[in-house]
Each structure stands twice: as structure tokens, then as C-alpha cells.
Amino acid sequence: MNTILIVDDERSIVELLNVILKKEGYAVITNPGTPSIFEDIEQKDFDLLISDIKMPQVDGMEILRRVKEEKPTVPVIMITAYGSVKQAVEALRLGAMDYVMKPFDIEEIKVLVANGLEHRRLLEENKLLKQTFRAETSFENMIGKSRPMQEIFTLIEKVASTDSTVLITGESGTGKELAARAIHAKSRRRERAFVSINCAALPENLLESELFGHVKGSFTGAVSDKKGMFETAHAGTIFLDEVGETSPWTQVKLFRVLQERTIRRVGGTEEIPVNVRIIAATNLNLRKRIEEGKFREELFYRLNVISVDMPALRKRTEDIPLLIQHFLKKHCERMGRKVKRLTPEVIAALVKYSWPGNVRELENIIERMCAVEERETITAESLPPDIINVGMVPTGGALALLPGFNLEMHLDQVAKAYIKEAGSTAAGNMRRMAELLGVSYRSLRYLIKKYQIKPPRGSELRENENDPVLPPSE
What is the DSSP string of 68-103? Predict the structure, then answer.
């Protein structure tokens, strides 16, 4: 049963609406237009509000504002005997669903209430679907089953419910912005804006204007007032990436925002209150920057209320096969191509590589292979030289059994990798290659022909150092 809250100082109006709405099957609670209405809004559950605008003790517009702050999905119908276009526009601007004048039509009220409740039901249903989606996908772009990543997920769950400032540290490419977005997505500010800015990407004067806004005429090109990102993020979250790169002057202003929770536009004098959650990130050692006199100590302690340290990819290698599958699907589908598969040899090489650029570097490699490789199966030939040089042969425990794994293909790829390595070491001398591999010369010739192995760059396959070239096809 839906509950309707009626607020009006005219007793006859309240009684009439009470009778009409109860006959329609609604529960009704009433208030005669006294200040206690604000307690009712806060403490009582109701699904729709009908309120007069002009009342001796309270202002109907203020009731409307309070409802929209406390219960934004509750529809509000405003009633007044003092009809004016100005009042109607103002009520609608503040979020009223509709506006009717006394004396009102009973059937019109019934229709408005039914439509309002249906609209609210759809809003609540949509909100529930969004919450369910977030619960299932908040970490969808933060892939990981390793212990370091599970600890990060747990920490994000804990800190998201607070409004505390968070400092995210870690090497470039570890996913610091993804972590910031996950914190926002799981916070009570999730319906509000998430505003991100790279502090290292802008010069000092431009960064100040972007962060705090400016007033008209404050500098050349300031042709009108402009809101900064702190104002844009009001009631939401602002993400300050690469905060360690900011200038001392900008650091002073950031400290003031954290302490006073107000900002002042460039060229302005007005103190503007801002309600934002600040999440900052850096790949620099801020304690070392403090010692060097390049970062203000007081700002560091204001930012470092809760610290989240993102692990480097080389410290969570067991996540690499999962990331590979995720990026293959993401980029192949984006390009409208069938999802490619990697040979076990390639996966092993990717697992073994140290990834100085972390997850971002891995994604770039996968995207390149999806774009350039025409074959459905990606082999070692598509890998960059520095990854190949690390070694193509998997070590124990490094390779996961992914869907589509084929043992015969895997063994062929391992054999092929060893033969190529032997050819490089022996500079194409097949007798020496056979010795290195522990096989007969005849067996080696058969394998070279089977795998169609080409000579290493700058060398040729030959039986002995001074012999003529022996083509693999012979």
C-alpha cells in the first residue's frame, strides 16, 4: 500500500483529500502546515507528497526543497489558490512533478497521484537495477585473483563508505584511476559526478583555473565566469591524478581547500563552499619529494588519510592470463573481429615478461595484436622483440590452462622455440644446433622442415660453418 503525505493548513482540503485517497486504496498521513513537517519528512516513510504552497507557518517551496534533498525519488504535487506562472515555473524548477490550483478537480488529483506513484516505482526499479549492476561490475576493469589484488578489493570496499580523503600510490599503469573510480562507484556519492584531472598535464596558471574556476576579466581570454572542477564535482568526487607534480603555489591552494572546504575562483573574492571527496594519486615517492623541498608536508598528511598502494603487474603474475583474456575480448569486440587466441608459447612469454609499463603496457600489446594480426591464432612472431628475448619457454607453474588449450600445439610451440634459440646461439650451424638440443642431425633437419623454421636474422642454416646453405625445405 502506497502512503501519501498531505500538507495543508486548510482542514477541509486535508479531509477531502484524505477521503478521496483512502477510497483509492492509499494510506494517508497528514500535517496541518506546521514546522513539525520537517521532522515528518525526515522520519516518516511516504511515497508521494501533496503540499500547499502558501501557509502561515511554513513555506511550501521550502518543503519541496527539503523533500528533494532527503528523498529525491518521491514525487511532489503542489497545490495553491494563488496561481501564478512564476510560482508554477519555480515549483517545477525545484523538482515538483506537477502544479494544480484550488479549487481542484478530484479526478485530476487521482490521475496525478497514480502517475506520480508509477513514475516513482520506475525510478526505484531503475535504481535497484543500477545498484545490482554496480555490485556485479564495480571491479570489472580491475581484474585479479591474486592475493595483492584481493587485498585491494577488500580495502576499497572498506574505504568507499567513508568520506575520508584517499591517496593512491603505485607505478604508472597499475590502475590508480580505476581504483579511484571503484571507490566512487561504491560510495554514497555514486549518483553524483566523478571528475578527473591530470595535474601534470597542465601548466600552473591553467591548472589553477581548471581546478578552481575564474571570473570574467581575471586574465586574457577570460570572457565569462567559469566553474572549476571542484564546483563541478560538488557532492561527488574529484580525482587529482599525478598530484605530486603540482607546483608549491597550487599545493598551498589544495591544502586550503582540504582544510576550509571552500574555494576561490581565479580573480574572485567570494569564498565558495564545496562538498567533495578528494582522491589523489601519484607514482612519485612523496616523502622523498618532501625531503627535497618539492612537496608540502602538511598537504601530504591531509591527502594521506587512507593510503591505497597499487601493486605492480610483476608482483601479481598469476593475474596476467586473466588480463590477457579480458583485453582480447575487449579489443577484438570493439574492432568487430572474432576474439583471437594466443598460443601457450605466447602466453608463457607474456607471463614471464617484467612489464615495466604494468597493466597499461600489457593492454597496449594485446590491442596491437588484435589490430595487426590477421590470423585467428596469435603466435610468437607477433610479439615485440624485447618480450621474445625474455624467453619463450614457460617455467613450472607459470602457465595457466586457459580455455582452448591444446597439448599437442603447446609441445610443438615449445620445440619450435628451443630450435630457434639453438639456431641463434649456434649462428645457424646445424651440427652445433643438434648438439645443443641433444638430437641427431637427421632429426634436426626433419624438425626444421616440419616447423618451417627460417634462419635467424643475419645467419643461414648450414651443416658446418664453411658449408653451403641448407634450405629448410630440403
Answer: HHH-TTS-EEEEESS--HHHHHHHHHTT-SEEEESS
Instruction: Tell me the one-letter amino acid at 305.
Output: V
- What is the distance between the alpha carbons of residues 14 and 438, in angstroms, rounded to a whole number? 98
| H or E segment and range at residue 6 | strand 3-7
* Residues 193, 274: Cα–Cα separation, whole Å: 13
Q: How crowded is the C-beta side of 197, counted as CA atoms within 13 Å? A: 25
**Mean pLDDT, rounded, for 371-390:** 80
pTM of the entire structure?
0.56
Which helix (H) or strand (E) segment holds residue 160: the answer is: helix 147-160
pLDDT in tens, 24-82: 999 999 999 999 999 999 888 899 999 998 899 999 999 999 999 988 889 999 987 76
- What's the Cα-to-Cα distance from 202 to each of 241, 245, 343, rounded to whole Å? 12, 10, 43
- Domains of the chain, each with CATH number or no CATH: 3-129 (3.40.50.2300), 161-310 (3.40.50.300), 313-405 (1.10.8.60), 406-474 (1.10.10)
